Amino acid sequence: MKFVDELFELYKNHLTGDEEDALIIINGILHDFNDRDIKHLVDTMPDQERFEMLALYLYEKFRIKVAEEGIGQTGNADDQDEVKFYH
Length: 87
What we know:
It is built from 4 helices and no strands. With 87 residues, the protein is an all-alpha fold. The longest helix has 23 residues, at 47-69. The chain is elongated. The model has no long low-confidence stretch (mean pLDDT 86). This is Cytosolic protein.
């Protein structure tokens, strides 16, 4: 993505290699954006990049939900106490 490439060029000499660097930079940039800026950025993205952006967003939201609600605590109606093997 051209925007990310330009952002990287702008900040590459200030990065420490820590993942938090990216989050701090992106949050700072987005706080300066207005709705029109964000819409323009998304509208100029190729379809594949928009798909990837939405997929990553949904993945992160789902991952956070799983972490908040807990994992391994299934309560599915089809859970059974005993294991049945079908051969």
